[in-house]
Amino acid sequence: MNLEPVLNDAGVDEHTSDSRRLGPFRLLKRIGVGGYGAVYEALDERLNRTVAIKILHDPSPDARRRMLSEARASAGLEHPAFVKVLDVFESHSELALVMELVRGQTLSALREHGPLPLRRGLLLIRQIAVAMASAHAGGRVHADLKPANLMLSDNDQVRILDFGLARDLHPDSGPNPDSRDGSGTLAYMAPELLLGRGPHPGSDIYALGAIAAELMGQNRPYAELDGARLAHELIHGRRAPSAQLPEQAGPLRALIDHMCARVPEQRCATMTQVLAGIDEQLNALRTASDVRPPAPHRRHWPWLLTGVLVLAALWLGPLLTSGGTRWPDLSMQSDLDRAEQLLQAFDHQGHVAEAIALLESRLTAQPEHAASAANLAIAYCLRYASDDRDEAWLQRANTAADIALRADPQLARAQASKGWALEFQSRPAEALPFFQYALMLDPGDRYALLGQARAAARLGQDTLAAETLANAMQRHPKDRVFVDALGTWHFSHARYVEAESAFRQAIALDPLSVVSRSNLNAVLLRRDRPEEALAVLQDGLRLRPDGRLYSNLGTVLYALGRYAEATDAYRAAVSAERGSPNDYLRWANLADALRQLPGREQDALAAYRTTVSLLAPLLARNAEDVTLASRSALYRAKLQDCDASKQTAATVRAQPNLSVDVRFRLAQAAELCGAREQALADLVLASTQGLPLKTIAQEPELLALRRDPRYQTHILATFSPSASNEVRPNE
C-alpha cells in the first residue's frame, strides 16, 4: 500500500464536505488516495495540532497486516528523516494510522521540472543515504524506496514515507511475500526481489541508485519499458542504469552502476560505502568549481537560496570594494552598512534573515563584489553551525569564498572567508595560512582574528590561540563575540572562574544573546551550580526557543539524574522545529539519556547509530581532530564496537596537549570496553588538568569504576571540585 501523507496535486487535494470526525481527529481535507483507502490532513483537537491520517476502509487481513507493519517499523526509527507514526487505532470498520504532517513535494513531483543539477541531486541523495544507513544499522530495510515515497519538505529536508513494506533483518528470514506481489514499484526493485529473494540492505541500495539516475538524468532507467519487458530487462539486460545521465557525469555514472549492479554481491556493500562515493563526487564537483573562471556578466546566482534564515558573520567595519576609481554606489554602501549592523548581532531573531536578503540583493546587482561574497561565505558557515548542520551550507560557503578571492585576492575579508570555509570543513591546517595572510592585510579584521583563534586551538597551537584572543580583546574590548570566544577558551582549559566572568560580561554587552546564555549555563553546570544554570536557560528560552538552550537544559537535567525529563529536552534539541536534527552531539546526548531509562536500550542504540552516521563524514574530513575522534571512540564503545573504539582512542592518546574533556571521554570509552587500568590512567591525567570530581561522580558509566579501590588511591588525591556531563560552550 502506497498512500502518500502529503501530496499537493490538485486532483486529490479535496476539502471534506462534512468536517468528518474520526475519534479525536477532525478531518480537514484529503491529500492522498490509494487502492486501500485515503490520507487526510486532520486536526488533533486534544493537542491542537495538524496531523496526517491514513485510513483503511473495511481493511482486509492483508491490508491490516501491512498497516500494523508500517506502524511498528516507523516507531523503531530514530533518524529525523523518517516520518514519525504517532498512533494507530480502529474506529468502527476503519483502521487509522496517525502520522506527522509533512508539507512539501515528492521527489517525483520535483523531477517533473527537469533533471536536477548534479550537486543538488547528490546532496538530496546523500540525505537519504544517511537516513537509510541508520535504519540498516538498526536492522531495518525499507523495501519500497522510490521518488513518490520521498518528500522534500519546505525546509529542504528529505523525508522518507511509507515503511509499509519494511521488515526486520534476521539471518533466517525467508522471502517477503510483499516483494513478489507488485507492492514494491517495479522500476526500483532489485533483480533478486523479482526472483523471490526477500528485501535486504542491498535492495535499498539498488533502489537509491535508480532514484539517483532518475533525478539527475533525462528519465528513470528503462522508462520506455513496463510490465514483463521491464522485469526481463532488470534481470537479464545489459544496459547500464546510468546510460541516460549527461556526459560530464562520468564518475557519477560509475557510482550509480555500482549501486545498481544486477548481481547483489557486485553492488555497493553498505550505505556507508554509498556515502563515501557520494562525498567523493561532491568533492570532485567542488574542486571543479574552484578552478572554473567566473562568468564576467552573470546576473543570477542559482546556488543561493534567497530569503532563508542564515546565521551570519560578526564583522562590523568599513566597506572595502574592488574595482577602479569610479564613485561608489551609495545605495550599495547603505545596504552593506545595514547588513554589517545586523550581522554583528547575529543571534537576534530576524536580524540574519534581513542581512542575508540585503547581501544576496547586492550580489544579484553586482555578482563579483568581493566584500559581499566574502561576508556571505562566512554567513553560510555560521548557518551550518546553527540549528541546521546541513553540509550544503559548507558547499555554498566554499563557492562564495572562491568568488570573493577571484574578485579581489588582496581583500582581507576574502582571505578570511576562505579560511572560514576550510575551518568549518574541519581543515584547520589549510585554513590557518588564509587567516594569517588576511591579518597581514588588515590586522584588525574580526573574521580573521576569530578564525585564527579557532583554527589554532583546534591544531593544539595554544600559544598562537591565546595571543590572537589577547590581540582581539585589545582591539575590540566591547565586542561580545570575542568576549564569548575568550570565555570558551578558558572553559576548554578548565579555567571555570575566568570563563564564567567572560560569559557574564558577554551577556552584559548583549542582553539578547542566547549564545552567551547557553555558554554561561555550561560553565555554571561545570561549577556544580545547577539551579543557577537552569535559571539562565529559562531566561534564554523566554527570549526564543533555541536548540542550544534545549540541549543544555537536557544536560542539566541529566546531571541531576532526571533522565526522562532530559530525554524530552534532548528530543526538542534534535527536532526540526526547535533544534537541529543534523547535530551529532545532540543525538549523542539523547542516546545517553535514553541509555539510563529502563526498557529504552534499543532506542538508545538507534540514537547512537544516528550519532555515528552524522559524525562519520566530519571525522573523515579531518581524522586528526582529537575532539571528533575522542567522541567517535566513546560512541563506538557505547555501541560495543570496542575494536574500533580502542583503535581510535589509541590514535588520540598519541597526540599532544589533550584537553580535559578529551581525556574524560577516553576514560569513559576505556571503561565501557573493559580496560579499567587505561580508564584510571586517563582519569588521573584529566583530574590533574582540572577535571572536577563531581563530573566523575555524576557519570553513570563510571559507577563500577568508582567502587574500585584504585579509584580511591589514584583519583581522589588529584581532584578539584565542580561537575557536569558533556557540556559544550558555543563556539
UniProtKB/TrEMBL annotation:
Bilayer-spanning residue ranges: none
Chain residues that bind ATP: K54
Segments forming domain Protein kinase: 25-282
Pfam families named in the record: Pkinase, TPR_16
Start and stop residues of the TPR repeats: 547-580
Entry keyword set: ATP-binding, Kinase, Nucleotide-binding, TPR repeat, Transferase
Gene Ontology molecular function, alphabetical: ATP binding; protein serine/threonine kinase activity
Protein's UniProt keywords contain Membrane: no
PROSITE patterns xrefs: PROTEIN_KINASE_ATP, PROTEIN_KINASE_DOM, TPR
Protein name: Protein kinase domain-containing protein
Organism: Ahniella affigens
Organism classification: Bacteria, Pseudomonadati, Pseudomonadota, Gammaproteobacteria, Lysobacterales
